Amino acid sequence: MNRALRLLRRRLIGSIPVLLIVIVGSFLLLEAAPGDAVDAYVASVGGDAGMIEALRQSWGLDASPMTRLAAYLWALLHLDLGHSVAFSRPVLDVVLERLPNTLLLMGAATALSFALGTALGILAGARPGSARDRLLSIGSLALYAVPGFWLALVLTIVFSVELRWLPLSGMETIASGKTGFARALDIARHMVLPVTSLGLIYLALYLRMMRAGMAEVWRMDFTLAARARGIGRRRIVLRHVARNALLPLVTMLGLQSAQMLGGSVVIESVFSVPGLGRLAQEAVGSRDTPLLIGIILVSAVLVIVINLLVDIAYAALDPRVGANEANA
């Protein structure tokens, strides 16, 4: 427990400069882009020079970039992410309203890809070089090469348009009046295609990593010794080979969280899921800089938390790692 707390403290302290770099870098990049929220607003509704000047003063866009950056960092110390000019609401409220949908999509897709990819990887790596191994390896390579948006469109055409088995878009049926278990089941039906589209790509990655890790473990001395003692192949696979090959997958689980968060932007757009990805798309269209920085900040915190949990899980699976990190 003490080692875990020391590891947690080190990771939290190290995340502070990371978040600061993300905030400052995002702000400067957005400032370098042409136009601002006033330009986007005027382009959609029109307005004269007086109205433009009044909007810039009202939204605080008349100050210099460094002044606005300093004001934003000061407000951030008080947990104030600013005010969304597109939604006319606090940024934190808008982001927290959409965050659960993205967490549901990412969590379900991660569980699907990790569990099924690991299981198929064990099947492939249990007998390296077999017909089953070659078939799964070729299938995973083909699946990994497929673009996520193309897979999403194909699944939509097949299961929503042609077969009409699953809903086409959204999180739930609009104005259905469902509550309790019926509403949960309705949300689950709507999430089948988005979760499958996002999870299948990473399923192929975990399958190939698990298979490659098991192929390496099969050549290690303790595995050869276990086979020489006459231990059954199934027991060797489950208790020795698969268990040791699982550690790199836990590391990859944290590294892929940022990519999966980025992939959710495309999936949410295709299936009209009201999550952070779709919100970021709306913020870019309206040049809502405070909202976009708030989304980036919350996303960075989410990735840091996921990687922190992965580090703790890795230290639990391999105590040597936790001891080395805590004593460093």
What does this structure look like?
With 328 residues, the chain is mostly helical. It has helices at residues 2-32, 37-45, 49-58, 65-77, 91-126, 131-145, 148-162, 180-217, 221-228, 233-271, 276-285, 289-317, 319-327, and strands at 83-84, 89-90. A hairpin with a 4-residue loop joins β1 and β2. The model has no long low-confidence stretch (mean pLDDT 81). This is Peptide/nickel transport system permease protein. Residues 99-314 form the ABC transmembrane type-1 domain. Keywords: Cell membrane, Membrane, Transmembrane, Transmembrane helix, Transport.
Main β-sheet, spatial strand arrangement: 1-2
Helix/strand class: mainly alpha
Spatial gap, N to C terminus: 16 Å
- Helices, by number, come to 13
Question: Into which percent range does the helicity of residues fall?
Answer: over 70%
Succession of helices and strands: HHHHEEHHHHHHHHH
| Unreliable sequence segments | none
Question: What is the fold's blueprint, element by element?
Answer:
Blueprint: H1 2-32, H2 37-45, H3 49-58, H4 65-77, E1 83-84, E2 89-90, H5 91-126, H6 131-145, H7 148-162, H8 180-217, H9 221-228, H10 233-271, H11 276-285, H12 289-317, H13 319-327
Antiparallel strand pairs: 1-2
Helix pairs in contact: 1-12, 1-13, 5-6, 5-8, 5-10, 5-12, 6-8, 7-8, 7-10, 8-10, 9-10, 10-11, 10-12, 11-12, 12-13
List keywords for this structure.
single chain; 328 residues; mainly alpha; two-stranded antiparallel sheet; 13 helices; 2 strands; 80% helix; MetI-like
